[in-house]
Amino acid sequence: MALFEEIWKYDNVYRLMTANPRFEALIMVCPIVNYGKENMIKRMNACYDALKNKGYNVIRAYNEEFNSYIDLKKDLSPDIIFYTSPYKGLIDERYYITKFKKKLTVYVPYFMNSNKDYKMSCNLELHNLVWRRYSETEYHRLLSVRYAKNKGINVVNTGYPGIEPFLHLKNHNTKTTRKRIIWAPHHTIEPVGIIFYSCFLKYYDFFLEMAEKYKKEVHFVFKPHPLLRNKLYGLWGKERTDAYYHLWEQSENMSLNEGDYVDLFTESDAMIHDSASFIVEYLYLNKPVMRTLNGEGLEIMYNTFGLQCIHQHYLASTEQDVEQFIRNVICGVDPMKEQRSRFINESLMPKGSPSQNIIDDILDSIDNQILYRN
């Protein structure tokens, strides 16, 4: 079940299934129901269009014309259901895991977890109920063993399929003389539990200034978290928020990206962010990357794995720090490159293909009637 295009991490799993006669793969796009109907329709159609454009076998769970939902059990009767998000209340209750206790259910995290909120990362209801939960690394599997109610009995370490497009990439030469720098702000403009990543309110005007100052040297891409717009609606109002987003589409050296980011990452030269998943994912490209700081202690929010990844970042406490990073990217100065290379090779590379590992485990488990595996 797909939700946002941005958190769809099953591309290669889907392709492997369609190539295997033992599977018949179908993607059902479920609408997000917790931010109103207008947002629900917009997000569902955007995700549907993105997956349809990839040539995938995809349907919408909700029919806008008839105001009706697909009955998953009666209309489709799947044998295996893949979830893309663990959060209850995000999709309509009729598609939540508790309605499918007799089905084989699978969850792959939509990001490589780097934070200390262990309930949200490995001990929600869905985490404990799914038949299979495939972990990003052995470190993450052991977090489930320690913090999940079911002691991680359903967790198998396969590696994270979301990073496969970034493995073994050759240098990508863009046709423009400008450097492409991504700015990716998180949605936590207000704290969510212990999580308070966002520096958006500190830098939203500054990045517009940088885009104007370095318009000949840099193309800036605004890549906000998919929930940031809705959070800003509550703080700024819809008119001001939409106007700000629109600003990023008004200049030849600025752009807005709210969709899939594989090509964006591949074609970029550097990134500045305060994200969670990008702390890990962007490292695989071994390009300069900066984490902006808002004064909150990183050791309070990030787990050991996350802190190790942050140590491969340039850090910014001030606007001057950010601008110096931009200048270094323009000049090709990257003193942390060798350090990042070692960390990637020693700590981040998966064993084999994560997607193939997932397919192999599913088939092996079914063939051998394995319910759980330690």
Description:
β9 (179-184), α7 and β10 form a beta-alpha-beta unit. It is globular and about 60 Å long. It has a 6-stranded parallel sheet. The chain has a 4-stranded parallel sheet with strand order 5-6-7-8, sandwiched between helices. A two-stranded parallel ribbon has the order 1-2. It contains 16 helices and 14 strands. The chain starts with 10 loop residues before the first helix and ends in a 7-residue tail after the last helix. It has 374 residues and is α/β, with parallel strands linked by helices.
| Distance N to C terminus | 26 Å
Number of helices: 16
Mean pLDDT figure? 93
Helix content: 25-40%
Strand content: 5-15%
What structural category characterises the helix and strand content?
alpha/beta
Number of strands: 14
Q: Uncertain spans, ≥5 residues at pLDDT below 50?
A: none
- Describe the sheet with the most strands: 6 strands, parallel
Order of helices and strands: HEHEEEHEEHHEHEEHEHHEHEHEHHEHHH
Shape: globular
Give a short synopsis of this structure.
The chain is an alpha/beta fold and 374 residues long. It is 38% helix and 13% strand.
Give keywords.
alpha/beta, six-stranded parallel β-sheet, four-stranded parallel β-sheet, 38% helix, 13% strand, globular
